[in-house]
Amino acid sequence: MDSSKANLGRIEAQVSMDMSYDEETGTVYNGTVQLLSQKTLRSHDSFQIGGGGAGDTEPLPKFPNKLILSEIFTPPGEDVQMTPETFSEISDGRKQSLRSNGTPISRLKSYEGDSVLHLAAAWGHLELVKEFVSECPCLLFLPNSSGKTPLHMAASGGHTAVVETFVEMVTFASDRLCTEESEREMLNLYVLKDNDGNTPLHYAIEKYHRETALVLVKANKDAAFLGNNKEVSSLYMAVRTGWLDIVKAILRITSKEDLELKKFNFDSKLQGKKYLAHAALDAKSLGILDYLLREYPSVMDERDSEGMTCLSYAAFIGYYDGVCNLLHRSTNIVYVCDQDGYFPIHRAAEEGHKRIVEEFIKEYPCSKYLLNKLGQNVLHVAAKNGKQEVSIMLMNNKATEHLGIGQDVDGNTPLHLAVMKWHYRSITLLANGNYILKLRNKRGLTAWEIAESEMKPNYIFRERWTLALILYLAHSKGCTSVKSLTQPSEPDTKNNRDYVNCLLVVAALVATVTFAAGFTIPGGFNSQKPNLGRATLATNPTLWIFILYNILAMQSSVAAIGILIWAQLGDPALISSSLHVAMLLLLYSLLCMPLAFLFGVITEIGNVKWLIAIICIISVLFFMLAIFVFGPHVMLQRDRVSPKYTGYFLVTFMQSKEIFQFFVDLITKIFCHNY
């Protein structure tokens, strides 16, 4: 009897809601969520099974003439472990052993606490579901070890016919109750939650069973407003899934209801997350967004867990159509910041959504002057987050280029922030004038002084690249005199040992290949006197060049091997000086080796002019790429780099890399678009 009371208490707790709305009278009242009104109850003599085919009428289930609520929720007794044979039969849609073993079906449980009705509902066996409910109605409300009822299982599996059958049976059972209307309300199976707080409708939407969800919504709309343990309601899930018909079915109201009453009713019933416009933007569904904002305009003012308005969120995720839709609805929302002090245009710039930033500036020119709580404009935000495309667009626009000299509460310009975050790709663009380079923040530091003071002593590529670029720009524009673009690095003995070993392997491979190439020269060797064993094309000038580059590549790599062996002794100073020399020699050998190969090929096919022209063009492009790949790495390793030629090389590389990036993106799109 104690467990029976517990079950009754569980049902009462889950069906209770703060407010409910009477559609006929248009009044709001306290109480419980009603399952079905007396007007919608079916006949006592028969009921229609929705999943069994249109118009099919089944005989009455074997319910008693009068049902007592306590009997429906009374536990069936001590559980009996289900045998594997019984489990297998139910999974196949049979129940022969259940009739022969004599154990009441209401007491059989699987290892996971599932009753026979749970299993039949999970596998979608409609006939078994009918028989089990007719023989033991209490199974309909009996939870398993996870708190799921059979309706949870059927909804999760998307068995629409089974769900429709449950709806019909609950309706029929509620009509057969012999006591008060309040007891019929206890049969609200649709609002029962499992251990995670999910109703059956939660699972139907989560598993993308659209028809099943629609059946549950039509049976009981109020269940869609209940939140689970994560504060997510079925309505929120339906919006985020993008199911406009489900959302309309849940929110459909009478025409007599005015706007204030709708808002009050909506806010009082909806549990958990209320920012439905954000969910519609996540689903990229303008249909749902329009419907929500038309019926419930207050949704536009809701903020998510990060304090973002729906416009800020649309700008943050880069949903251009959603941003345009919201901009045409309201002007004030453009000037509403989130809890971090960011306006919608800042969120777009933060994520690099150039098109949306352009839309804000075009529709609301004043938005470019908006400052966040740190006093940062839109260019500050783009530069700080390394969004190069947005920075380029703003600096190349005459209406917004002045933002480059704006200073935040700490006196930092966008260039200062880009240097602080080591976003070297934006530096050449942001440092477009002497005035910007000379600006100091409240600590009295220029951009290059920040780079020099904050750069770590060990080698980090992006930091050294940033320092070299900003120093070259300051030197070339006459802002300061620079003797070197780099600073000496402190070698890390442990990590450098692995690095030295890698260089040793590369140098050894180059030496091996070039050594072998010296004895397999193009054209072969003479087999007759007086030039026996000599090269056949010894008088060919291209062969001379081949041999010259091959010797230089081999000797440079051998010298690099010898120097790198010294670096293995563990002396930090010796490691640093050895790497400076070895890296130059290895770079030289890696450039000489492809040149030797080029002239060797020319020697072999010297009579085919058009092929030589094509090979030369390809080799020149490769040679430039090789210099761009290896050059910066070697230059930035050194501690005394001339600002004149090295800086010009680095800036040229920054300007040319976009071309290489275009080809890389093109090749990726053509050959790797499916991966």
UniProtKB/TrEMBL annotation:
Subcellular localization(s) per the UniProt record: Membrane
Pfam family, one: PGG
ANK repeats: 146-168, 196-228, 410-442
Record field: transmembrane: 499-523, 543-567, 579-602, 608-630
Boundaries of every PGG domain copy: 495-602
InterPro entries given in the database record: Ankyrin_rpt (IPR002110), Ankyrin_rpt-contain_sf (IPR036770), PGG_dom (IPR026961)
Principal subcellular localisation of the protein: membrane
GO CC terms of this entry: plasma membrane
Membrane topology: Multi-pass membrane protein
Keywords tagged on the record: ANK repeat, Membrane, Repeat, Transmembrane, Transmembrane helix
Gene3D superfamilies noted in UniProt: Ankyrin repeat-containing domain
Protein name in UniProt: PGG domain-containing protein
Annotated source species: Capsella rubella
